Amino acid sequence: MSNLETKPADGVAAGSQVNPVENRFTNKFAHILSDLGKNGIFLALILVVVLFSVLTNGILLRPQNISNLIVQNGYILVLAIGMVMVIIAGHIDLSVGSVAAFVGAVSGVFAVDWGLPWWLSIILSLLVGALVGVWQGFWIAFVGIPAFIVTLAGMLIFRGLALVVLGSASIGSFPGEYRALGNGFLSNIFGEFEIDPFTLGVAAIAILALVVQQFRTRAGRSSYGQAVEPLAWFVAKLVLIAAAIGFFAYELASYKGIPATLIVLAVLVLVYGIVMNRSVFGRHVYAIGGNLHAAELSGIKTRNVTFWLFVNMGFLAALAGLIFTARLNLAGPKAGDGFELEAISAAFIGGAAVQGGVGTIGGAIIGGLIIGVLNNGMSIMGIGIEWQQAVKGLVLLFAVAFDVYNKRRSGGR
Amino acid sequence: MTDKVDAPLNILEMRGITKTFPGVKALQDVTIEVGRGQVHAICGENGAGKSTLMKVLSGVYPFGTYEGDIVFENKIVEFKDIRDSEAEGIVIIHQELALSPYLSIAENIFLNNEQRGGLGLIDWNKTNAEAAKLLARVGLRENPTTKIMDIGVGKQQLVEIAKALSKRVKLLILDEPTAALNDDDSDHLLNLILHLKEQGITAIIISHKLNEIKKVADSVTVIRDGKTIETISKSDVTEERIIKDMVGRDLENRYPDHTPHIGDEILRVEDWTAHHPQDVNRVVVDNVNINVRRGEIVGIAGLMGAGRTEFAMSLFGRSYGSKISGRVFKNGVEIKTRTVSEAIANGLAYATEDRKTYGLNLIDDIKRNISMAALKKLEKLGLVNDGQEWTVANEYRKSMNIKSPTVLAKTGKLSGGNQQKVVLSKWIYSDPDVLILDEPTRGIDVGAKYEIYSIINKLAAEGKGVIVISSELPELLGICDRIYALSEGRITGELPIEEASPEALLKLMTMEKAR
C-alpha cells in the first residue's frame, strides 16, 4: 500500500528533473489555484460586495454605509472570534446572545443605577462575562456535559437573569465614554478636514506593518528552506490587499473617521490571530478538535484548554454585549436576540468544520462580514426581514455544502 | 464429490477458499469440513486468518470476492451479504457484541426481525413472550424488558445466542466468545454450547484457549498464515500438537542485526493492577511486575484480551482503567505517572496500537503532529517557533525516511508505514528514556517493518529502554532481548531471548489461572 501512495510524490520529483520549465509554470499555477481554493471565502465576500454594490446602485460602498457596516456588525464579529475557537475545539456555544444581554443589563446597573465610573463598569462587566464562562466551562470541561446542553441551558438561564436584572424595564442614558465603545470615532486629531488625515495615517501605518510582516515571514520561511509562493504572485496579492485597505480607509476618512468598534476589532483579530496561529494554546485547540484521543495521549491537558476556551467565550460575549448596549445607549430585554446564530453562521461560512479541528479567525471574520453585507445590502434594497432570514439561511447552507463538496473532491476526509 | 450428496455427514464444507486483499493473501486454499451436530474449533495465532475465513463464510466478504466453494447443507451457496447467510441459518457472533445498549433484551433479540401484529405494528406481548422462551433456552434468568446496558458481558453473550436461536440457527459461529468473560460465565457459555449441540445445533468456535477447546470441541482445525495446517479429532488433541501447528513457521531474516549493550535498570514497575473502567470489579491488569534496563528491548507477548494495551495505557498517565495501583521507579527513584503530561515529563512515551484513533491528528500535517507532544521545546513566551518546528520536522522526515514531498502533507493521506514513522518521530522528539511501542508494525508492509525495527534498535543503542508489545511472536523473537508473557492480565513468565521459543511463549501466554 505504501508503494502505491508514495508513487505520486516520486512522479513529481522525476518530472521536475525531466522538464523543469513546464514544472515551474505548473508550480506557479498551482500556487494561484491553491490560494484561490484557500481564499474562496474571500472571493465570496468580494462577489457579495460587488453584487450588492450593483443592486443598490452604489449605496453599499458610500462612506457612511461602510462605516455603518462596521459598527452594526462589530458585536457579531467579536462573537465570531470566540465562536470559531470553540467550534475548532469541537464544541458549540448557544448562550452568547443571552450572555451579551445579561452583561449589557449588568453594565447598566453598574454605570447608570450605581453610577460607577465608566471604566470600572466596563472592567466589572467583562469580569462578569468571564465568570459566566467559568460557570459554563466548568460543566463542559470538568463535569463532561456536552457543550450543546450546557450552553442551551445557559441561553435560558442568562436570558432569564437579564430580565431579572432589568426588572421589566430598560436601562438607558449611559455615560458618554461608555457609549463611545459603540458609537465613537477616532478622527480630527489634526483638526477639521474634508478627508481625515489621521484615519489615512493609521491606514498607511497598517499597510506598512502588513507589508513588513509579510516580507519577514516570507524571508523567514525561505531561510528555513520552506517553499514560498512566487514573488510576483506574492507582491500582487499584497498590492491588492493594500489597495483594499486604502480604499476602505479613504471611505472612513471622508465620513467620521475610524469607529472605536473597528479599533477594538483590529486588536482582537491581531491578538487572537496570533493565539490561534502561533501560540501553544492555539495548537492545543486545533489538536483537540482534530483528534481528542491523540491530543490527550500527547499530554495535552484537554480539560483545561476547553475550560479556558469557554471563559474566553464568556469574556468576548460580554464585550459584544457592551458594544451593543453602548451603540443603542440602552440595555433592553431583547438585546442579543439571535446573536448566537449569526456568530455560529459566521464561523461555518468562514470554513470551520462541524467535526472540529478546522477553522480560522480570519475566515470567521470574513464569514461575519458576508452576513453583514447581506443584511445591509438587502435592507438598503428594502427587502423585508422575512426574506433576509431566508436568504441568510440559504447562504449558510450553500457555503457549507460547497466546502464539503470541495473537500470531497480534493480527497480530504 | 457425488457420493457426499447421498451422505450429508457434513453440514458445511469450505473448499479451497482463497481470499486476497491488495498485496496480501489472507487465505490460501483453506479447506475445512464441519460435521453435522458437532462442535468444531478453529485455532490460530492473531492474524492467521480465522476471522477472515468466518467473514467469507457469513457473507461479510460476498461471493465473488473470494475463490473456492462454500457447500452448506449439500449445496453450493453464494452469499451476497450477512442477510443471505442468516437466511440459510448461519449466524456469527462477533467478539465485539452487536447489541444496542439502550434497547431491551427482547428488542435486541428481534432487532430487524420484529414480531408484528395487526397493521404491521410491533406486538410487544408477543415480542416479550417469545424472548422469554428464548432466554429460557439459553439459561438466562432476566426479564426480557431489561436494558442491555444493565446486564454484564456474560449475559450479553447469552442474549446474542438467544438472538441467533430466534433466527432458527443451524450453524452458530462464535468468535472468541470467552475472551471478555470471567470463569463462571465462561463455564456457563461452554455448557450451553454443549447443550445446544444436543439439540442438533452445529457450532464453530474460534478460540485459542486450549482447555476450553478440549472441553467442547469434537475436532480442531489449525490455521496458520492463511493456510489450513491440519484438522485433529478430539481424541488426538494435545496442547503440544496445537501449539506446534500454530507457530511452526520458518523465521526468515526479516530483522536487522542487533547487538545489545545493556546497562543499569532504567524502569521498574511494581505490583501494577488496574480494573476495567466500567466493570470496576473486573481485574484487567493483575499485579504486574516488570523492569527494563538501558539499551534493552523488552517484549510483552500476550494473546488478544490478555491486557497488554490496558497495562501500557494504565501506566501511561492512567489513560485506561479504574482503581489503578502500583509503583513505578525510574533509575531507582519512584516517579508518578498520574497524568499523561506527568508521564511524559518523567520520560515515558507510549506509541499506540491504533494510530488513527489514538495517535495522529489526521487532518493536520506531519510537522504539527511531530511537535504535538513536545511543543514546550519549541515554545518561547507561549508562542511556537515556526521555523524551528519546520527544521525539526524536516530532520525527522529525513532520518526516519518518511515518504512525503513536504512536512506540510496531511498525515491522513500517508500510508500506514509512514504514519507510524510520524508517530515514532513525535515520541522520539519528546525525548523519552523509556518508549512503550504497542504493536509498532500493525498494518504495515514488510519493507516498512524492517525500517521500524531498525529505528527500535537505534533507540536501544542510544541507551533508551524500549518495551515492545506485539501479538506477532516472530517479531518479538526477532527484535527483543527479553520477553515477558502476559495472560489474563498476569505476567506468567519471563524468558531471556536465548530461552525464548514460540512454543515456550505460547505455553505461557495460554497459561490460565488455577480454577
TrEMBL record, chain A:
CDD domains in alphabetical order: TM_PBP1_transp_AraH_like
Annotated keywords: Cell inner membrane, Cell membrane, Membrane, Sugar transport, Transmembrane, Transmembrane helix, Transport
Cellular localization per UniProt: Cell membrane
GO molecular function: transmembrane transporter activity
Record's bilayer topology term: Multi-pass membrane protein
Keyword hit for Chloroplast: no
Bilayer-spanning residue ranges: 41-61, 73-92, 123-142, 148-172, 193-211, 231-250, 257-275, 307-326, 347-375
Cell membrane as UniProt keyword: yes
Pfam families attached to this UniProt entry: BPD_transp_2
Gene Ontology CC annotations of this record: plasma membrane
Function: Part of the binding-protein-dependent transport system for D-xylose. Probably responsible for the translocation of the substrate across the membrane.
Name of the protein: Xylose transport system permease protein XylH
Organism of derivation: Agreia pratensis
TrEMBL record, chain B:
Main location: membrane
All residue ranges annotated as the ABC transporter domain in the record: 12-250, 267-513
Membrane listed as a keyword: yes
Membrane-related topology note: Peripheral membrane protein
InterPro entries referenced in this protein's UniProt entry, alphabetically: AAA+_ATPase, ABC_carbohydrate_import_ATPase, ABC_transporter-like_ATP-bd, ABC_transporter-like_CS, L-arabinose_ABC_transporter, P-loop_NTPase
Signal peptide: none
SUPFAM superfamilies per the UniProt record, alphabetical: P-loop containing nucleoside triphosphate hydrolases
Molecular-function annotations in GO: ATP binding; ATP hydrolysis activity
Subcellular localization: Cell membrane
Keyword line: ATP-binding, Cell membrane, Membrane, Nucleotide-binding, Repeat, Sugar transport, Translocase, Transport
One Pfam family in the UniProt entry: ABC_tran
GO cellular component terms listed in the entry, alphabetical order: plasma membrane
Protein name: Monosaccharide ABC transporter ATP-binding protein, CUT2 family
Organism encoding this protein: Agreia pratensis
